[in-house]
Amino acid sequence: MHLSVVIPVYNSERTIAPLVNRLQTCLSGRRVEIILVNDGSRDRSEAVCQELEDRFDNVQFISLRRNFGEFNAVLCGLTHTKGEYVVIIDDDFQNPPESILTLVETAEVGQYDVVYSRYAQKQHHWFRNLGSWLVNTLTTYSIDKPRDIYLSSFKLIRQEVVREIIRYQGPYPYIDGLIFRTTRNVSSVEVPHNTRLEGRSNYTIRKLISLFLNVFIGYSLWPIRLFTVLGAVLFGLGFLSGVLFLISWLLNGTTMTGWGLVAWAILTGIGIQLLFLGVLGEYLGKLFMAHSGLPAYVIKKSERLNERKSE
């Protein structure tokens, strides 16, 4: 199987069948499997997906018992892929299926592990564009994402990387975070971006906040270290002010009273507390990362190791 296409499906009874038909046409001549994951849709999406599986031999349909979220549905689909390359595409036709070939060509020419799509002009609602900008800015610092990479949902992942991603066992998968924990051999290519054919985006402020907290807390120790640094700075200011007051007392005989004493006590006290909490949080963070099910390293290639496994 050369290519796998994973489509998370949610309330897309009018678009999923045309999308699959178009995929069959534009990817004809290639060995392709299409995996549809119904994420607890409230319309007839499940029935339509079942009809598509019955109609096409290369379509596999998985229906989740309830709505778990886009990333969970994608992770489920990735688990069942067999293709050398795996492409994730939304069910709303905003990404032309023909652009899959552009992603594949870019990956083959550059030998990239992951190829993200980028858009000259995005056709999302302004609120989703704002949310995407916030998440991309956050991930630049939290998961060490290159600034020139836009974390679009339409992307290609090499199967070796997929195998590492699906090792995640927790309830809050963040696909892009798992990608950048596995590889840095990542590129992007510009593709068209269309307006939605049907319905409206399911991107809500609640989902934005949930994603923000998931990235901020679940995939980085950066928040803990931020408080550690803040505590060290406050403690340093308190210590410096104490030294200055001590020098003033030794030279001039003046003592620390009033607001000066209060400010020194607050800076020093809060600084010590935050520093202590930061160090404690660092230990807890390391413990969390150690039990997250992620590998300590990822082997890209080892001929001797493969020979030993085959013996």
UniProtKB/TrEMBL annotation:
Keyword tRNA-binding assigned: no
GO molecular function: undecaprenyl-phosphate 4-deoxy-4-formamido-L-arabinose transferase activity
SUPFAM superfamilies cross-referenced by the UniProt entry: Nucleotide-diphospho-sugar transferases
InterPro entries for the chain: Glyco_trans_2-like, Glycosyltransferase_2, Nucleotide-diphossugar_trans
Keyword Transferase: yes
Record-level GO cellular component terms: plasma membrane
Entries under Gene3D superfamilies matching the protein: Spore Coat Polysaccharide Biosynthesis Protein SpsA, Chain A
Pfam families on file: Glycos_transf_2
Residue ranges constituting the Glycosyltransferase 2-like domain according to the UniProt record: 4-165
Transmembrane segments: 205-222, 228-251, 258-277
Keywords for this protein: Cell membrane, Glycosyltransferase, Lipopolysaccharide biosynthesis, Membrane, Transferase, Transmembrane, Transmembrane helix
Matching PANTHER family: UNDECAPRENYL-PHOSPHATE 4-DEOXY-4-FORMAMIDO-L-ARABINOSE TRANSFERASE, UNDECAPRENYL-PHOSPHATE 4-DEOXY-4-FORMAMIDO-L-ARABINOSE TRANSFERASE-RELATED
Protein name in the entry: Glycosyl transferase family 2
